Amino acid sequence: MPRDRYRSEILDALNSAGAPLTAQELAARLDVKGGERRALDAALTALERAGEVVQNRAGALLVAKRIALLAGRVEGHPDGHGFLEPDDGGPRVFLPPAEMREVIHGDRAAVRVSGRDSRGRAQGTIVEVLERGNRRIVGRLHAGHGVLFLVPEDRRIARDIVVPPAEVGRAKAGQVVTVDLIAQPSRHAQPIGRVAEVLGHYADPGMEIEIAVRKFELPHQFSKRALAAAHALADEVRSEDLHGRKDLRELHFVTIDGETARDFDDAVFCRREGKGFRLWVAIADVSHYVRHGDALDVEARERGTSVYFPRRVIPMLPEKLSNGLCSLNPQADRLAMACEMEITPGGEVSGYKFYPALIRSHARLTYTEAWERLSNKTAKEHLVVLYEVFKLLLGQRERRGAIDFETVETRMLFDARGKIEKIVPEPRNDAHRLIEECMLAANVCAGNFVAEHAHPVLYRVHDVPSAEKVSALRAFLAEIGLQLPGGEIPRPADYAQLLQRIRKRPDFALLQTILLRSLKQAVYSPNNAGHFGLAFDAYVHFTSPIRRYPDLLVHRAIKAILARKRYDGGSSGVDWEALGRHCSETERRADDASRDVENWLKCYYMRDHVGGTFSGTITGVVPFGLFVTLDDYFVDGLVHISELGRDYFQYDDARHMLLGDRTGMRYRLADRMTVKLVRVDIEQRKMDLVPA
Hints:
The chain is an alpha+beta fold.
């Protein structure tokens, strides 16, 4: 009997029994004998790991739902408590510090809801640890009372890990190390670890990245099989690679990227045709080299995305591909997937087609170079035509009602030791937006193409805002005489219309932030729910297969459609739901790791500014205080609520402010504030401020 069939039969048998069954009793009920027992045991293990079946203390099996158990992932908190994030997507369950003593952030557990805490949240009791999530933990070794212990870098792991003398190796107190857990925590015992790797000292150059890589469990070393597969590829395009491709080498393609970019996965070209235009977006054909299920594909799927740190990248693909064969380097023949679009004088895409192509980039331009040439009227005709098309596409974007938030990007400038010299705003010009609009157009065409052919793919989904968030937003706006148009479910154009109306108000920063926070986070999903922020019915990521796995999947789907086939992974199959969750999680993991490194560097930089007074803007209001972003430095610090004065301050979530009972003193999101930097804690990535 196939293992997949056992799942429903096991659950049916346990439910109909009306009482717990041992594994032997279950096998007898299902009439499982001989060699079939191994498949039954494997199915049971999978069900226990998923939290659908649990064992009681007598070793008998029960259906988790029958005893009101929730299975999920444990999220730790630096203060010692935690939460269970249920697998079914329901409300999370609060876990008091006493319950967190036998689990660690990242573990999976089965929890019984036992009541409500003082804040009305569901509170749980851990019934069983289903799966341990942390096998190797990075941190700093400390000595105390003759014992070495590791303080984890991930503050969500709130328990120290004891390292016995026999398990220390050559490591010394003060060093950054990784430890393998050799004894898991319990209610009455600390976790115990063995030193696996000595990374060095905290202030060593690049240590912040080495820590983040391990803290967020980023795959950072390619397997031997993946490296061998990359090494076996030819160094240049071969004649046999050209079969079925359209030769576009005569078109004057260019790449336009940032100054420090090393991988170029998109090139553009445009020419006038009558009153309209024909626009080509050529994307590196990674799918030609990375095939479903091969060593390179397995590695790319696990990573999900490239991870970008200041001065270092952990690529999704080995360098031979990411900076070589699949990078559209100037004056080199490269394989590409082309999206050829017809653009009307009104900026609409009236027709498009996809096909495999051979291209040659004629120039590598930076955003600065391209904008200088366009501004100084020294740009060549092909760049001028691209700029004309950009303005048409931008006009169509505005008419469509896409939401366009104003944000400030920053760049860190480093000294020879790898530490920040200063942080500067990164100017955004029309060359950035030109490429952005061309990529958006190609992504939309790709989304429409796979949707029209009903082919499975991972869409980039940005769902409509929740009713609760919209209601809270409308209540806030009503207090200041503003209104978000639209009904219960507003349209993107309603947001865009309000943004346009408030753009010149002095409190624009506040209002834009609140509008932004009312929106959901974009995710990858096989279910096409459209992209709310961009106002598209179908949207996929097609344009960066070198650094994003979902884009590689889109290329495979498009090629399958062109060949009148289906991309389904063959005998191994593709679980699109699971793959969407995985790609969304790896994207968040990469963002968290990059942010962690940036915060470490900023804290290290600000150590020399302790005692200084700065002007800033309140960018976060929480029950325990205010987060203030300092002008000119672009770093955030916390003003704790206890520093705001001798008063009781009430947190008003709807109005995004703290209000003093006695003084009536009000601190609100986007208010200006003068503060003094009093303390920097590099290990916790925290800066403490007080009102000046």
